[in-house]
Every structure is written in structure tokens, then in C-alpha cells.
Write a structure and sequence with these properties.
Elements: H1 2-17, H2 19-29, H3 35-45, H4 49-60, H5 80-90, H6 102-120, H7 123-132, H8 134-141, H9 159-178
């Protein structure tokens, strides 16, 4: 947390001293790493590259060795059960450890975003499903107090998922502005 506060403070100082320095500092926080893989799978699966970058940035800060206390792995922090489901959907026989390879992680993560987009449509609901799971979001969409139209989420009941969605949406906006 202290590193983040320090980084944000330094970025603010740079922004106050000059626009070019600010843009460079922000690009360091929101980089375009693994560009070949992101471009390839963005085109292949029809997923906005800014969404892919934002998920990677939020999930792992572009660390290929990232793993979570709940068992998610790789750049896009995919859970073992989700990975098995994706392998089945893709007709692949891959091993979970392969998610530590950037290209593999981006391919599977982007395919997941593609499937969630087909199922749920809007980015906010897709991000909630990426974080909380498809089944949970489907239950939320069936609750009129959460989703009056049954298609989009008017509110997200889990505070950690709501926070996650806001973080990724901010990152998408940053990527759109920094790399337009």
C-alpha cells in the first residue's frame, strides 16, 4: 500500500511539472506489455485490447508469476476450475501451470472475457462475472433488487466485486486516454 501511495504522489508531482512527464509516468503504471499476445487474442476473440490490458494490470500488475491466496494464477488470475472449464470449451489439454506463460495466460483470459461478453453483454456485468463468477452473476441478474431488467446490474451486492469492477473500469479509461 505504501508503494502505491508513493507512486501516486510521484505521478502527481510529475503531472504538475509537465504533461509529457505525466504521460510517461502514467504509462509506467499502465504499461502496454505483451503487446503481440494482447493484439493477437484481442483480434481473434473480438475483445477490446484496453479491457485486456486493464484486467492484466488490475489482476497481476503484469507479473507473470502472480498467484492469489485463493488459487488463481498468471497474468489474468484464472482459477483452477475456470481453467478446466476453458480447456474443455477450447478443446485443449493444457496444464494449470502453463498460465504462468504470458501468451497462454492472455489467450485463456481473453477467451474467458469473450465468453462472458457473449453471455452477459455489457462490460460492467462481464467484469463482475470475471471476479465473482458466472453463476453468481446469473443469480444476481435474477434478483429484481439488483437487476431490474434481468440483463444488467444496477448494483453489485459484493463490495469486493464492486471495488474490483470500479478499479478495472478506471484502468480501461486510463488505457483509452494514454494510448488513444
Amino acid at each position: 500500500m505504501k508503494k502505491t501511495i508513493t507512486a501516486v504522489f510521484l505521478i502527481l508531482v510529475l503531472c504538475l511539472t509537465g504533461g509529457i512527464a505525466c504521460r510517461s509516468a502514467l504509462r509506467a503504471v499502465y504499461p502496454h506489455k505483451y503487446e503481440d499476445s494482447v493484439e493477437k487474442y484481442s483480434a481473434q476473440y473480438g475483445v477490446d485490447k484496453n479491457l485486456i490490458y486493464a484486467v492484466i494490470c488490475t489482476e497481476s500488475s503484469f507479473r507473470t508469476d502472480a498467484s492469489s491466496e485463493v488459487g488463481a494464477a498468471g497474468l489474468m488470475q484464472i482459477m483452477p476450475e475456470t481453467f478446466e472449464w476453458l480447456c474443455m470449451r477450447m478443446g485443449e489439454d493444457a496444464e494449470f501451470y502453463e498460465l504462468y506463460d504470458p501468451d497462454t495466460a492472455i489467450r485463456f483470459g481473453t477467451y474467458l472475457l469473450h465468453l462472458l461478453t457473449e453471455e452477459f453483454g455489457d462490460v460492467r456485468t462481464v467484469l463482475a462475472a470475471y471476479h465473482a463468477g458466472r453463476g453468481q452473476v446469473a443469480r444476481w441478474l435474477g434478483d429484481a433488487s439488483v437487476s431490474p431488467d434481468g440483463k444488467t446490474l444496477a448494483k453489485i451486492p459484493y463490495s469486493d466485486t464492486a471495488h474490483y469492477v470500479r478499479k478495472v473500469e478506471r484502468a480501461i479509461s486510463m488505457y483509452q486516454n494514454l494510448y488513444a
